[in-house]
Amino acid sequence: MLRSYKGKSPRLAQGVYIDESSVLVGDIEVGEDSSVWPLVAARGDVNYIKIGKRTNVQDGSVLHLTRKSASVPDGYPLIIGDDVTVGHKVMLHGCKLGNRILVGMGAIIMDNVTVGDDVIIGGGALVPPNKNLESGFLYVGSPVKQARPLTEQELQFLKVSAQNYVELKDEYLEES
């Protein structure tokens, strides 16, 4: 489940849960109390992946990045902030997610996208390359559009969702 690539191996902070059916390869850092659930594929091979604290990546998601090239000298790593919930079957590719974000099931977020803090991205959304999603909003559709500001209840839910997965991964860790 954890594999080296060109001398770089995944690094896991304290309290991390990685399901045995997931595969993490290469230059990947997973922050404290985060979780990676069944059948996630994460390849830190041609750049790096950084997952923050208390973040969960749910079943069947794919995490990858963009290699360095003449047109993109640094490439695009994949950076995921703290308290992020990445729903089932999400694809994240060479993008940067802030803190307290919910990415709905089946969403696709492409190269060089930046997502601010406190954002909900609806299920099935497509965020095309080079977009910047402003903090504090709900985004939906394919291609994604800003729908409305988040309510106070939704802002609180972002923290609750992340905490729920911290508690769930702790239960899984107790059983292993």
From TrEMBL:
InterPro entries: Hexapep, LbH_gamma_CA-like, Transf_Hexapept/Carb_Anhydrase, Trimer_LpxA-like_sf. CDD domains: LbH_gamma_CA_like (cd04645). This is Gamma carbonic anhydrase family protein. The lineage of its organism: Bacteria, Pseudomonadati, Pseudomonadota, Gammaproteobacteria, Alteromonadales.
